[in-house]
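Lab notes, practical 5.
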Amino acid sequence: MLNVYRSAKIVLLLLLAACGAETPKILATDPKLAVTGQTLTILGEFFGDEQGESFVTIGGVSPTLSSYIEWTDNKIVLRLPDFGESGLVYVQRKDKKSNPVLLPSLRSIPEFPKSSVSYAPVITQIRPDSAAIGDLIVIQGSGFGGARDSGAVFFSWAAENPASLPANVSPPPLIKARDGGAYESWTEHEIRVRVSDGAASGVVQAFTSRGASNTVPFRVSGKPGSKTIRDKRTYSISYSVDVRVKDAKPPNNMYLWCPVPASTASQLNKETLFGNTPPFIEDYLGVSLYRFTGLRSGDERRVSVSYLVDVYSVETRIQPELVKPYGDSPVRAWTLPSAFVPSNDAAIREAAENICGRINNPYLKANTIYRWFVDEFQMAAGSTLVSLQQALLEKKAGPYEAAMLYTALCRAAGIPAIPVAGVLCPKTGGAIPHYWAEFWIDSFGWMPVDPFLGAGAVPGNSDDTTEFPPDFSPAADKPFKLRDDHEAYYFGNMDNQHLAFSYGETSLSQIDTRGRTARSEASYALQNIWEEAGSGIEAYSSHWSDINITGIYLN
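Output from the prediction step:
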């Protein structure tokens, strides 16, 4: 009996000790951006003097036991497993789980290498040496690196020189393959990548952290038409975010997910001009993440940024008889429903069937849906902020509903399409939040559409709900002067006054599962999180300024 009593007492003491153990807490990670195989240091407290049965998870992945290099009560050093594009880091000790810390992967944040080192990559062959936009090509050679990391493939760019430019001067000659399905694999000796939207016949070049490769001739073939990118206009823009804390006690964290101008075939050379505070993570998935820690009641914080962005006009010409049915490629994902685009809704699917009828050609389908908008819809200058189903029923929409519903109808008809959010830049001063769309044609790429402007409506301030009939002709004092050929122009073409922040929807992961998130409806970016107040922040207020245009430079 004595031995049984003693054993029970020991078990009870162990249970009490476990219950009394402090919850592990992560204070910092080094580096902030990481890559598979790199060493990660986690600093904090209450990790335990030895690992024992404790472990770390990164994006839901647990490193193998051999990955751990050091484990002390306030420091863990380990070699990173493959955790995808980003992941939340947790330390698990017995039944206690730490706070999460976001760890992005460098492979999802490609950047142009600023310098080259020895062992630069070498391209020996491209198979095939001629392919259409969206087709998969295989680049063979050496020195590409075991993983993509910050590497990228560039193609000759389909921009047209302005007539005023000297013959011996050219615009930036290369365009980077767009993320989001372009890269299928990347190894030391082979890169499998799809030909980028906006690519032209010329050369292909690979860039890695080791430097730039040689250029290899490559021909873009099979286009069912032409795309012309020209008339560059450079904008300097700025905006700010102000946060006032009403009730908070440290420790705590406040996160701001600030939109960054998008990079596409017609919007290039984005440059940060000013930032009053460095971001915690810069330009990740189209946003920069700012973090404020240890906030107290009455504290005020501000993020102020400005950018310089080149925007080009796009003009397309299509021969419908050359348009092919969609093949098997990553863009087919843009036919699926999403939080912003409910293309599986029964009313939207029925409308798409009725509008398109027996039309099978993807280009003609997209054009028929556009013509239906122009002929049938009454447009309101400000967003109506109604459901897409109600907008469809009443045939009345603001810019937001028009773009989202057009995208949804295209997807319901089997056409890959994305909504685009940004601003119109008619003159210096306040920009106008606006929305449009793009749809994909195989072997050609993305085609822009603005059903709101195409219907003859004039965008204004968000609180301006004045309605305009489709044949309305804008007055000279309106903030945006509509083109005379608006109905024909805004299907397949886009002017250089549309500055985009979101191409498609940005899905961000909440950092503190105990925190509160906020989103902005019908703003100049399409993202599910704009603010996140962690535990400890009970009440706060925020103000996001409008986009301000501080300069316009014509080229």
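Observations recorded by the TA: Residues 1-19, 108-118, 461-478 have pLDDT under 50 and may be disordered. The chain has seven helices and 36 strands.
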